[in-house]
Design a protein that fits this description.
Length: about 210
């Protein structure tokens, strides 16, 4: 029974490699040196597909992959429907925060009940956060380079992932409010879990045991 695992390039891929190894799975090619999207592994029935981070939940929901590794940010934006989420892998950890241009008095604007223009790739997370605070917002959906939005005057604030804070500092932005901690989760197609129970359980259990040792 073949198993397809959806991953995204970068931190998620790099930090999933040791977990795959714990399950006895190794990708046999250097993905960085290839333009391919499908990779064989040392196990003839297991293959890895590389997709954009925000597409991992979509591939797993619709059965393009049996399982995948997705950031909590991507999962919340997707909605999580049709997905079994058995494990917090505690990898690719960061936080999602509100950031503004240095000098913008965010606390004052919130206190005044000002309507804020928020630029973000994460409108669902941002909308829920500001709704819970009772802050009115106009959401501007972006697909990248969010830092530019406050600098050009297009937005008052951004909602973005922050790890070291270097990207914000380099663009004269300051983090004003953390929203939530983010890490990557193992996600599994619900039908696959029934149809391919034994091989998927073996992978889930190996990941769980590797995570508990980290
Ligand atoms: P940093 O400069 O270390 O704060 O990293 C911030 C930049 O890296 C932002 O552009 C984020 O979108 C991206 N980033 C940070 N952590 C992650 C993560 N765990 N997954 C995906 N992107 C991240």
């Amino acid at each position: 029974m073949s198993i397809t695992i959806a991953l995204s390039k970068g931190r998620i891929y790099d930090e999933t490699v040791p977990l795959l190894a714990a399950a006895g799975i190794a990708v046999t090619e250097d993905i960085e040196k290839s333009r391919k999207l499908i990779f064989e592994t040392n196990q003839s029935h297991v293959r890895v597909v590389l997709v954009r981070a925000s597409d991992v939940p979509v591939y797993v929901e619709y059965g393009g992959a049996d399982l995948g590794v997705a950031g909590l940010d991507s999962l919340i934006e997707h909605g999580g429907q049709g997905l079994y989420q058995p494990l917090d892998l505690r990898i690719a950890r960061c936080r999602i925060s509100v950031a503004v241009r240095n000098g913008f008095d965010y606390a004052h604007a919130v206190k005044q009940g000002a309507r804020l223009r928020i630029a973000t790739k994460y409108p669902e997370i941002a909308r829920n956060f500001f709704a819970a605070k009772g802050v009115h917002v106009d959401m501007i959906k972006l697909y990248g380079s969010m830092e530019l939005a406050p600098l050009t005057g297009m937005a008052d604030a951004i909602v973005d992932l922050v790890s070291t804070g270097n990207t914000l500092r380099a663009n004269d932005l300051v983090e004003v409010e953390p929203i939530m901690d983010i890490s990557s989760r193992l996600i599994v197609n619900q039908a696959s879990l029934k149809l391919k129970q034994a091989p998927l359980r073996a992978i889930i259990d190996a990941f769980a045991s590797a995570v508990s040792k980290n």
